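As a warm-up, study this chain.
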Amino acid sequence: MIGGTNKRAGLALGVIAGLAFGGATSASAADLGGGGFADLEERIAELEATTARKGNRKVSLTISGYVNEQIQWWDDGGESNVYQGTNESDQTRFRFLGKAKINADWSAGYLIEFGVWGERQGQFSANNDDTSAQNSISLRHSAWYLESATFGKLTVGQTSAPNDGITELTLAKTITVSKPIQIFTPNSGFAIRRNGSIAGNLTWGNLSPVGPGEGDRFNIVRYDTPVFAGFTASAAWGEDDLWSLALRYAGEFGGFKLAGGIGYGEYSDTSRSLGHTAGFGGQGDELGLSVSALHVATGLFATFAYGEAERFNGEEYENWHIQAGIQRKWVPLGATTLYGEYYEGDFGRAISGSISGPGGGAVLGSDVTVWGLSAVQSIDAAALDLYVSYRNYEADLFTAASPGGVSGVDEFQTVFAGAKISF
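Now compare it with the structure written out below.
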């Protein structure tokens, strides 16, 4: 039963009012099956059983999520401005999670999750902060599962492949601000400039696939083993020859918290690309990993991520990312996280576009470096994380006319600050 006496009385009054005002001429004892208030009591019980306030009597319902919005200052080498939008490193979202206990060992449930965009940070450009996908909602997860403490978990539907998130494992509060897969989000829609001027139709997002080595969400059948000595293995198949495997670990040893994982995936369907490398040759395979360690006594931490992808057409991409810093509760509000990060990506041809000017042309390869500094302050009483981050982007571009690198490519700088509040 949901609610107490007051809720029950309110529901009864609602039913009575509906009968009285919705059809006064026909609302009689006969309409209630001849049983008067006894049948009304039965009807109230039926409504309670089918109303998804906290689930029905068999399946619980939990509604959760968070809002992550930020303000961003940027300088692309030719101009600068300030925009407001959704931080796509950890996008605003809401989810519905259901669970039912079958017996002492087995349970069943489902996950439905939606992502929400106001203005998409990843589509900002120098001339426009009103992005094409503004004020939109996307389906992230829609899947059911059967789970056993003895035999593991089977999931069917649109959900994460085993290697989704494999390069994002961390023990510190850094995902809210930045992660390898989304390193280009703050500037991916901005045109690349040479000596202050827009150079052709090439954007920062054209230079690289998003997160080589990182998986994605697909329509799949997935299996996860029970946890054994801190390890969990996963496998999935779906969407016409997509398959992937992953192994994860979480534990504590010698005063350190440890987390890590490695994943591999392959996609042989020509209509789509594996993981986040869409537009880079379709079919191929990917390998990704990450490892994180946090010293419990001092709060010092370090996280390393690596990913590579090879398309069946011969294109290869590689990137790595390191974060290091300290996370401690210096103030009663909550933990403070201070860290620096460094990223390198070695990519092949650009998705599209070319760079203009002396030695320009189609981009046949690029080396990108990113470094940044960030701070996160948690406020535990409000389930709130406040953050501020600085990033600097540099790119070496290679064309047929400039095999040693195109000169005069401007750096991109950005500062973004915001908050993530969970519910």
